[in-house]
Amino acid sequence: MRTPLDNPDPAPPPSVNRQAIRRLSAGKYLVWMLLSFAASVSSTRLFLELTGYPRIGGREIHIAHVLWGGLLLFIAALLPLIWANRWVYRANAILTGVGIGLFIDEVGKFITLNNDYFYPAAAPIIYVFFLMTVLMYILVSRPRLADDRTEFYYILEELEEVLNHDLSDDERAQILNRLEGVSARNLDPAFAALASKLAEFLNSDSLYLKPTAPGAWTHLLKNAEKMEQRIFTQNRLRASLVGGLLAIGFKMLSYPVGVLASLRSSAEFSILLEDLVARQLVRGSLTLNLFNLRLGLESFMSFTLLIAAVLFALKHDHRALFIAYFSLLGALTIVDPLLFYFEQFSAIITALIQFVLLLAIVRFRKRFMKKSSEITI
Questions:
Q1: E strand or H helix that includes residue 231
Q2: Residue 11 lies in a domain
Q3: CA dihedral 220, 221, 226, 231 (to 10 degrees)
Q4: Which structural domain, as residue segments, surrounds residue 185?
């Protein structure tokens, strides 16, 4: 008599897995897109300001640069659909950044009935959109534990260098390390067998490897890092941070102090309010409350930055790093959208200085506070 064990049912086939996999170089492509986006908006505004906002077209036609942005976005969408080369993704990132910059630069026309390109809310919308893209980059760049399926996606992507005759010894070692990890876990016999065959192929003597001489960009970065370490010692970098924090702190404090000083004279305060109304920055109670909020937040952030500068000068580096980091982060994410509303694109300079100081804060901690756990940045 036969039993079920004599003829067991075959194992069910694995279900289709379409879970999204983050691309191996997604962070780098987002950096290219961010740089292209920032350059596109700033250069477009600068060009239009210098040329007096020219019209391209005839009497009834005006070819706005939003159309050029749409064209670049269309080309960017076509590239990865047509070509499979890795360089396509960098070109796609650059074209996407330029295209979205040209598109969103005209957001004022899309949110107003009279197609107002200079609508005050346009600048903070563009800035917040850029910040959201930066947040996306931060989230994407975070390291994640990769399963065998993800590892094989990365391995197959890196094997493109073999077809391009562009595989270096370091890149081969990285692929072999991934394959070793897959084989060691041995979660799926099929994956383990494939990993073994690929490792055998990569270890073949007939495989061409590109010479590993460092490129010009790598050489430039190494020289820049050596120069930075030689010029910016701990004391010099600390002194630079003190000067930068004092400068941006007093810069941010100057406007609230000026508004406060104008309260001594009703005529001066009336001129200030009339200017805000004339530029359509204050249109009612909501925008007036935003103006008051700007004054309060700008004053608070400037005081905290000045406190951080004093702490740096006194060599209380741990507290200074903590206060300066979160103050600059708060200024970039909370205060600056208000500055972009009331100062429009002239606030770019302030935001750039704050961003450079934030990078310097992170660099100071990385170089000189490695063993400290009092602040996590």
A1: helix 216-231
A2: no
A3: 90
A4: 148-202
- Bridge partners of 168, per DSSP, are 210
In the structure encoding, which two tokens stand for residue 138, read together? 């931060």
Residue with tokens 């205060």: 335
| Among 337, 235, 356, 344, CA closest to 281 | 344
d(CA 371, CA 377): 13
Nearest CA to 163 among 257, 86, 271, 262? 86
DSSP 168: B
Q: How far apart are CA 75 and CA 117, in angstroms?
A: 26
3-state SS, residue 210: strand
Query: What count of Cα atoms within 13 Å lies in the side-chain half-sphere of residue 367?
Result: 18
Percent of the chain at pLDDT above 90? 45
Same domain for 120 and 58 = yes
Question: What Cα–Cα distance (Å) separates residue 291 from each residue in 256, 285, 341, 351, 358?
Answer: 10, 10, 9, 18, 26
Task: Give yes or no for a contact between 364 and 238, defined as CB atoms under 8 angstroms apart.
Answer: yes
Q: How confident is the model at residue 374 (pLDDT cuts 50, 70, 90)?
A: very low
In a domain, 16, yes or no: no
DSSP β-bridge partners for residue 210: 168
Q: How many C-beta neighbours within 10 Å does residue 331 have?
A: 28
**Same domain, yes or no, for 229 and 363?**
yes
Could you tell me how far CA 290 lies from the centroid of its own chain?
Answer: 27
- Dmax (CA) for the chain in angstroms is 108
Domain membership of residue 211 (yes or no) is no
The span from the first CA to the last CA of the chain, in angstroms, equals: 70
Summarised one tens digit per residue, pLDDT across range 182-227 is 887 766 777 788 888 889 999 988 888 888 766 677 778 788 888 8
